[in-house]
Amino acid sequence: MDLLNTLVDKGLRRVSPTREEALAVLASSDEDLLDVVAAAGKVRRHWFGRRVKLNYLVNLKSGLCPEDCSYCSQRLGSKAEILKYTWLGPGQATAAAAAGVAGGAKRVCLVASGRGPTDRDVDRVSDTIRAIKEQDGAVEVCACLGLLSDGQAERLRAAGADAYNHNLNTSEATYGDITTTHTYADRVDTVNKAHAAGLSACSGLIAGMGESDGDLVDVVFALRDLDPDSVPVNFLIPMEGTPLAKEWHLTPQRCLRILAMTRFVCPDAEVRIAGGREVHLRTMQPLALHLANSIFLGDYLTSEGQAGHADLEMIADAGFEVEGAAEVTLPEHRAGARGGGCGSPTGADGSAAGGCGPRAGTGDGGTGGCGSHEGGGVCAPAPAARAEEPRTDLVAVRRRGAGTDLAPNA
Ligand code: SF4
Predict the structure, then answer these.
(1) Range of the structural domain that residue 173 is part of
(2) What CATH code is carried by the domain that includes residue 104?
(3) How many CB atoms lie within 10 A of CB 245?
(4) CB–CB of 293/270 below 8 Å?
(5) Whose CA is nearest to atom 6 of ligand 1?
């Protein structure tokens, strides 16, 4: 396809596709799907080789949020039976982080539900960041605490945070349909605050909320304009007890096209498969590794992922390799651009102290904005169905910790 040759050429040169080209990827046929994956895979390998970065979520504070994000099991009025607890202390968070690092994660994502942190909350999270860095200076720490007020990003950076996550989630035009308690502009503002403070910005989307192809292209182009270092792509887990519980729109093929489009539009950014990987990609997860260079290891915020060892086996079986702590995630031009962005060998002051890729760093992630990394599920046998139709019969979402005394992220 001329289109794919054009997209590969542009991706290798970091030239943006046109909106029409991005829409054509989403509209491509199942017959062309492997060609689309192969083309986007060339771009992925050019910038990231066969490396897969592992990220690990630590849910510092779960549930009881006053905001009304429709996709989120932690929202105001949510009837989802999720774990609810207030702030984990530095010791608990450090122990959870250590488990993820032992499993191969190089980034720990500290997430808290809520509209945004108070200054006291920033103090707490700063203590936790310092404790994690004391335990392992090489681990990247990303904070995901909601909307930031002036000065908070700088304080998190000073405490050792490498990155800050806040997702745009969906297009500006449809944002008000998803959330009413804050605006799209609020989210853009927080991503810009993270950038300005020298934090590596992480910002992505949630697909499967009933949006159009145009909405998906809009949000991915908006992300390109914001220029985050990492772009988590979440696939909506329609959790029972949330307004979007009946929104099953995704197929594995659709997910692959969305990831391919994201790769073409953001060729040199860390594209991360986030919540919903297991539920929606199912047996096609290994194919998605040809598009994304980053995944979460193990569980999500309020739902279970597949077991960590299954993630590691999948990566090896698909011919990829887990990115080591000493390897720089981002391409050189991007890693050095902000002097301290993730994967950079130098800190904000040009010293070797601020980068989060190499072991020398002082040492991010979450996928989406708080609460948007829902995911995980199990498959049960089901009769065949047409590939282009969502298979809700294959999926049972398991809540993290359901029916157990497990500690968070145990
Ligand atoms: S996504 Fe974040 S702000 Fe929105 S309801 Fe969930 S926890 Fe609250």
Answers:
(1) 2-396
(2) 3.20.20.70
(3) 17
(4) yes
(5) 371
142, 266, 342, 370: the active-site residue:
142
Element (H, E) at 7: helix 2-12
Instruction: Decide if 266 is catalytic.
Output: no
Residue 330 lies in a domain: yes
Question: Hey, what amino acid is at 78?
Answer: S
Report the residue among 60, 61, 62, 74 best suited for mutation to probe ligand 1: largest number of ligand atoms under 8 A from its CB.
74
Specify the number of domains making up the chain.
Answer: 1
Q: Is residue 409 part of a domain?
A: no
Q: Decide: 93 and 132 in contact? Cβ < 8 Å.
A: yes
Any residues with CB less than 8 A from the CB of 210 and at least 6 apart, and which? 244, 247, 249
pLDDT one-digit tens code per residue, 329-381: 999 998 876 544 454 433 333 333 333 333 222 223 333 334 343 333 222 23
Tell whether pTM > 0.90. Answer: no
Which tokens hold the place of 103? 């499993």
In a domain, 41, yes or no: yes
Contact 342, 335 (CB under 8 A): yes
Binding positions for [2Fe-2S] cluster: 109, 142, 202, 272
Q: Taken in order 249, 251, 256, 257, is the CA torsion positive or negative?
A: negative
148-165 pLDDT tens trace: 999 999 999 999 999 999
Name the one residue in this structure whose structure tokens are 């047409």. 386
In a domain, 8, yes or no: yes
* CB atoms near residue 101 (< 10 Å): 21
